[in-house]
Amino acid sequence: MDEHRLGLKPIVGKMWAERGKAPTVAVEHRYAWLYVYAFVCPQTGESQYWLVPSVDTLAFQAVLDRFARDTGAGQCREIVLVLVGAGWHCGPQLICPEGLHLVFLPPYSQELQPAERLWSLTDVPLKNRHFPTLDALKGLLAAHCRWLEDQCERARSLTFFHWWPRIIN
């Protein structure tokens, strides 16, 4: 599980251009954000994405509760979530739902976080694009995240590290 900030400040990246002509991208620096919370099972590639207006303990608690309910976590199903040690992941106000177990990575080791690799996929439709409002960005991003949830093999190829523990049914 990981979070990613996206907003009206554009993501500028490489693009195709006609030979001899410099590519142009409309850029207007504005500072309005939303956050993508992503959950992925590296072995199967199953993923869930949540668009949330903030990143804090309250928002994380709401997403965690919904994730536990949607995945059937509880007495009959145990899920281990690997997280970075952000303050909102381990604050005293956070109540971990039954069936979820939080495991924290060592500090400064986000390269070990499988969900970190999903951001290259979420950014694809946003690169070199200008959005007039956060709602316009959210509409496109929501549709793209719904599509990504069906791309299990693509997510698996990015997140299933050779050293990742195998799930035994």
UniProtKB/TrEMBL annotation:
<protein>
    <recommendedName>
        <fullName>Tc1-like transposase DDE domain-containing protein</fullName>
    </recommendedName>
</protein>
<dbReference type="Pfam" id="PF13358">
    <property type="entry name" value="DDE_3"/>
</dbReference>
<dbReference type="InterPro" id="IPR036397">
    <property type="entry name" value="RNaseH_sf"/>
</dbReference>
<dbReference type="InterPro" id="IPR038717">
    <property type="entry name" value="Tc1-like_DDE_dom"/>
</dbReference>
<feature type="domain" description="Tc1-like transposase DDE">
    <location>
        <begin position="1"/>
        <end position="138"/>
    </location>
</feature>
